[in-house]
Structures are given as C-alpha cells and as structure tokens.
Amino acid sequence: MRKATVNLRLPRRLVALEGTLQHAAPRVAAVEDEIAALRPLIRLGDVCLDVGAKHGAYALMMAAATGVDGQVFAFEPGPAPRRVIRSGCRLLGAKHVTVVPKAVSDFNGSSELCVPKRRGLDVPGRSFVAAGTVGLGSNVEFRRHRTVLTDVVTLDKWSAQAGVQHVDVVKIDVEGAEGAVLGGAFDLFQRSLPIVLVELEDRHLARFGTTAREVMEILTELGYQASVWVDDRWQPMTTPSLRYRNHLFQHPDRLAA
Questions:
Q1: pLDDT tens column, 225-236
Q2: To 5 degrees, how large is the angle CA 239–CA 244–CA 248?
Q3: Are 67 and 189 in contact (CB under 8 A)?
Q4: Hey, is 86 helix, strand or coil?
Q5: Helix 12-24 with 57-66: angle, nearest 10 deg
Q6: In this predicted model, what pLDDT tens digit does every residue of 60-98 receive, in sequence order?
C-alpha cells in the first residue's frame, strides 16, 4: 500500500494551500473530492503529470505531495490558465512544477484549441482541441467559441524529448480527448504502470466519436483495475460510473511493488 508522507522542506505557503484543498474538497463544489482522495497515493519524490491542468489545483496538490525531490509537469494549452498556474507556482514556491504549454493527444503537430465563451468571458474549463472532433458535442450549450492555435504532443514523444522515462501518477481531464491521450502514451504507460485518474464522461467523449466504456477498455486491456471515490473510499468498478466522472486506474503489478 502506498503511503503519503510529509516533506518538511516544502514552502509553508504550498503546505497551507494543500491543507486548504484537502479541507475544501468534500465541502466546496468547485474543488473535486478526488483532489483529496488522490493525495494519499502520491509519495515523496514521485513524478506526476497533470494533463489538462486548467488553473493548476491538481498540479499544486501534486507538488505538495511529491515534495521538492519530486517533479510535476502541468500540460495546459490555454494561455490564460497557464498564466494562473505560473503565478501560483511563483507565489507558493513550487519550483518543481514545470508548465508545458502544449495540448496532449495521439499525434504530434498543432491544432486549434476551442475556447467557449459565456457572457463575453472565456470558460477555459470546457476548452477542447479541435483535431479529431465530430462537432461541438457537449459544448453546444455555448453560443460562441474562440480558437487559439496550440502545439500538440503525445506523452510518448514528450517523455523521450524531456528525458522522463518513468512517471508515477497521471491525471487526465481534456474534455473528451482522454482516449487520444492514452493512445499516445502506450510506451510510457507500459514502462511505468502509473496510477491514472481520468475523467470519463460520454457527453464530452462523444465529440471525439468515442465512449467512456471504450476509453476504459484501453486501460483495462493493459491490466488496469478501475475504481471511483464513493463514501470516502475507492470502490472497484467494472464499467464506467454514470454518477461519478473521475475514475482511478491502478495496475496490480504496481500495487504489489
């Protein structure tokens, strides 16, 4: 069983933020319960990836959990959310967080990032990469979108270029492109067998022509076992949950290590 520990060399501001997130997770709708539930599974010195980092809540929690000897890579293609993450890292002293200004998918190149707008303001949490989509899907509720050109990379290519041969924890929330992210990460996942927290919602996945069940099968075919956070514990699942969007995948070979 993985056991969380505390790194006393962390900046106090970062420790305080982690405590705030832990307290808020079960009480504040804007903070996902899983941000606290994932924390005990991260060890000092771990290498963590936050794919679709948005404003960096998971990335900063990971930074507190890994300690200064760990590494966190926050992938965020949106310029505005990236500025928030970088500012947060500076203010909190999270020097071991690297912000990667790219989208992640199953190809390397570039694409448009579609950013929905509501009342004239961007809604970055519902942004998605246009490549491979078959329509707006769940974003039909927004009357307007603006587009931003972004670089796109697979985790396999990124890891080779960055010299990151092993990862411990990966969180993926990319508004329907989760299957594409996994499709470009087979080598890295087979080497590392990381813990994976992935959002699975058919309403978002539909714009990429896939389903939660199909994405879940990508990981189960690699030997992963799924669970969701219910009643303060991770409960095993054999099919995607219709009630809870975030699914945790762990590989038995890693659990036994």
A1: 999 999 999 999
A2: 65
A3: no
A4: helix
A5: 120
A6: 999 999 999 999 999 999 999 999 999 999 999 999 999
CA distance 130 to 108: 14
Written as one letter, the residue type at 98 is T
Average pLDDT, the chain: 94
Q: Which two tokens stand for residue 106?
A: 């199953």
- Other Cβ atoms within 10 Å of 237 Cβ, number: 17
Query: Could you please report the per-residue DSSP string of 97-110?
Result: EEEE-SEE-SS-EE
Cα separation of 184 and 39, whole Å? 26
Token couple for 92: 């909190």
- 192 burial via Cβ count (<10 Å: 0-12, 13-18, 19+): buried
Q: Report CA dihedral (139, 213, 32, 46) to the nearest 10 degrees.
A: -120
List, in order, residues 6 or more apart from 186 with CB less than 8 Å away: 156
Q: Which residues contact 148 (CB under 8 A, 6 or more apart)?
A: 77, 78, 79, 112, 113, 115
What are the helix (H) ranges across the chain? 12-24, 33-38, 57-66, 79-92, 155-162, 178-183, 186-192, 202-205, 212-220, 252-255
Residue 184 φ/ψ, nearest 5 degrees: -100, 15
Give the type of residue at 195.
Answer: I
